[in-house]
Amino acid sequence: MRLNKFLASSGVASRRECDRLISEGKVTVNGKVAALGEEVGDADEVYVEGKKVVVQKYEYYILNKPKGYICSVSDDRGRKTVMELMPSNIGRIYPVGRLDYDSEGLLIMTSDGELAQKLTHPSNEVPKTYLVKVEGTVTESDLNPIRSGIEVDGYLTKKCKAHIVETNKNFTKIHITITEGKNREVRKMFAAIGKEVQLLKRIKIGDLTLRGLDRGAWRKLNAQEIEYLKSL
Predict the structure, then answer these.
(1) Is there a contact between 190 and 178 (Cβ–Cβ < 8 Å)?
(2) Which member of 11, 23, 42, 110 has the greatest number of CB atoms within 10 A?
(3) Domains of the chain
(4) What number of other Cβ atoms are within 10 A of residue 182's Cβ?
(5) How far apart are CA 201 and CA 69, in angstroms?
(6) Whole-number Cα distances in Å, 104 to 109, 112, 203, 214
(7) SS3 assignment for 94-108
(8) Hey, what's the torsion of the CAs at 3, 121, 220, 104, to 10 degrees?
(9) Distance between CA atoms of 15 and 21, rounded to whole angstroms?
(10) CA-only gyration radius of the chain, Å
């Protein structure tokens, strides 16, 4: 692992700030002043300004969030939070991104701030897929304004993928994949074409799914899933 990434992932500072510390000679590896771009491994001893860097062990979970919970570690209005669905002794973790109170589905819970930033920052365009249920019949052509970008709250949404998976006279179910994550964005996109969302469920982040996970249940991510999310 590159030294700046090692330092950043251990909570020393941002990668840019770690590069500055390295270039100023404030970082040593095995007793020698480190160089920019240097690689380090598990057996190396790294010090910053004379203080040993201890590797932080992060936790990674996937949660199938039900409706009626907010994506926060606490709430001053007394609403239930997703933390109440996790074990009480789980330690310091937090939800990555948001699913609003009335939405449900796939939520990542972690203590890894770098991964959280990667998954949520709009510039990274991480695809997130939702199952949307709206009242009445919707046609594929009705979805074209959403696919091409539609004005919401004074801004134009990015192009996205959307297709119908079930429809009848009472309701229509749609899969929509977006790369943004603005507040209540999917609901507002459908409101802009005159459709109120009855059900909103996140079913995928990239290719990671909720397969086998009941509503309200959680599990640890395995090593392959963690590496996959970091690669997005």
Answers:
(1) no
(2) 110
(3) 3-52 (3.10.290.10), 60-122+210-231 (3.30.70.580), 127-205 (3.30.70.1560)
(4) 16
(5) 13
(6) 14, 22, 9, 12
(7) EECCCCCCCCEEEEE
(8) 180
(9) 10
(10) 21
**Residues labelled catalytic:** 100
Residue-wise pLDDT tens digits, 193-232:
999 999 999 999 999 999 999 999 999 999 899 989 999 9
Q: Coil, strand or helix: which one is 90?
A: coil
Place of tokens 């589905």: 105
Token output for 81: 């939070």
The residue count for the chain: 232
CA distances from 70 to 87, 121, 130, 204 (A): 17, 20, 18, 19
Query: pLDDT tens digit string along 66-75?
Result: 999 999 999 9
Amino acid identity of 69?
Y
pTM, 2 dp: 0.79
